[in-house]
Amino acid sequence: MEAEWIEQLGEDSFMNVKHWKRVGDDGALHVLGNGQMCAYEEGPVIEQVFGPPYSGISLGRLALEGIETAESVRTPGTDIWTHSLADGSRMTDLIDSEQPCLIRKIEAAGTLRFTLALTEWFTAVKDTEQRWLFHAEKGSPCYTHPSDYELFHCIEGSAAVRIEQTDARTFILSVPAGEHFLWIASRPQTVQAVKDAGYAACVERTRAYWAAFLARGRKVPEQVREICEGVAVLVKAQQGLDGGVLAGFFYHMAYVRDQYGVSRGLLKLGYLEEAKAILSYYHRIWQRYGHIKNAQSIGTPGIFHIHENDEVEITGYLVVQAFDIYKAGGGRAYLDSLLPMLKWALEVQMKHLKNDMLPFNGDETYIAGGFLPRYAMYDGSSEATMLFLTGLDQYIAYTNDSDGWSVVAKRVRARYAENFVRGGGLITNNPARLQPEEYPAERWGVCEECCHMAVLKKTAAARYLCPDCYGKKELPVRPRSVFQLTSAAFAPLFIGADVVPMDVLAGMVNEAARRYEENHALPSDPEGRGGTVGYDYGFFLNALTKVGHPLAAELYKTTLALVDEAGAWSEYYRDGKSYGCRCRPWESAINIYAVLTYLESLPA
């Protein structure tokens, strides 16, 4: 039960102090990054290092041999991490603020050994006794898509460090007792620039970079200052120079939905410029290509991760996000520059209005997480329709209805309760949007049988299968099931939508609170068929706060208790344990938004 694992956590749980174990580690990751190069570490183990570009694949994994435990600590006010090893050795890691170079200072109490497991796409060439060069041809994966760029990396050690290749994909790095350095960079020239600057100068300028960034943040309550700083660093480290933010350890792309939650968290923490950079990133892509997809590459343009129905939901987030930034002080001139993209985002959604409802995006959280069956893709989505209407209303008010869309807004609003309110609550999907015979004959997306992405064909049962499964697998006719998922009920209060009456929202929040108090659990599916999406805690806390429910105090503690030792929230939880992707900007930003919103609601 959640109460049991909450009680196990002390106040210093919110510190960015990772107690690493070779065997049985909890998997918490921290991130280093400067917009050009990024690295994810599990304690002293470099799990990934990549960039430029941010959407590039990792060079490999650099593991520490023969050491069973370590303590990794983020230096306050920076993204510099120090690892104290069980043998008395000490290592300090940073990515230089000016160069795409990871610097590891090693103070070894005895001989240390590291193993580099090279990613399969790279080939290696020995350059000097202390330096190896690595190269990946065009076509290496950008997430699941072939890239159109080459990748270059090098690893170099100081004079006494030895790097030996044991097979095509494995290297052993030996470091004797004493002070040594290891550099991982894009090219030898980058390493030389860092060496010429000197270690002390690199540390000083990197400290100054992070101090200047954090100084722009808002003053937050002292009891959550450290966790707010950790989230701010986590997001900034994963934001490319072009403005796109990585979606965590697994996903080296910028996802529109994730960026919305990140933007809300950044604005709450006081980082307006970083929030604007996200939207400017999408604006440049739209200007160049004329569209925005589910996710796009960071640091190199033109690679898109496409899902079903990419013209809905994510486009709704873009519009709402633009007005969030405007209201936070983004400026009229900035919003005016975005209006052509916002108009496009609204127009493409209108094409999909059927019975005044929009469908689901194929990578929508509930579908991707298995909480909502993929067969419900073409059903009416209460959340996508609500996002569309919320953005449309703001666009109409700002432009004085220059496009004559108020008639559309009035019609969708008038039918929203009819389409999505049942028994005093909000349903997630409405199968009445389309009949199965109206579904398209083909679509790009995820096969309902094997889950591979391909051009899918519709079966006689209106299910979608890939070429490998079509004609060989039979899926039953989809049931006309209606779902009431937890997140969808809380979304209006997070987005600021007014289409759902407050008495309906309060009733849903009260019912969710009753179930929580009965079961001490928050399944994203009220029927308990899965775990909990990581941001549901923030959604629930925000909803409880907005309706003034006393359970908010407990959810505040619960939400904070989920933060891992590296200072992040995870993609999913089950019984208080993380699963899925770690070091997540989306969940971390939404949850810290809710934490601050709750604290702001308390009497002074």
Structure description:
The chain has two domains: 34-213, Distorted Sandwich (Beta-galactosidase, Chain A, domain 5); 216-601, Glycosyltransferase. The chain contains 16 helices and 31 strands. Strands 1-6-7-8-9-18-15-12-11 form a nine-stranded antiparallel beta sheet, covered by helices on one side. It is globular and about 75 Å long.
Give the key terms.
single chain; 604 residues; alpha+beta; Beta-galactosidase, Chain A, domain 5; Glycosyltransferase; four-stranded antiparallel beta sheet; 36% helix; 23% strand; disordered N terminus; 6-hairpin_glycosidase_sf
User: Can you list the strand order of the major beta sheet?
Assistant: 1-6-7-8-9-18-15-12-11
CATH class identity of the largest domain: Mainly Alpha
Q: Classify the helix fraction into a percent range.
A: 25-40%
Q: Could you say which structural class the secondary elements and strand pairing correspond to?
A: alpha+beta
InterPro entries: 6-hairpin_glycosidase_sf
GO biological process, one term: carbohydrate metabolic process
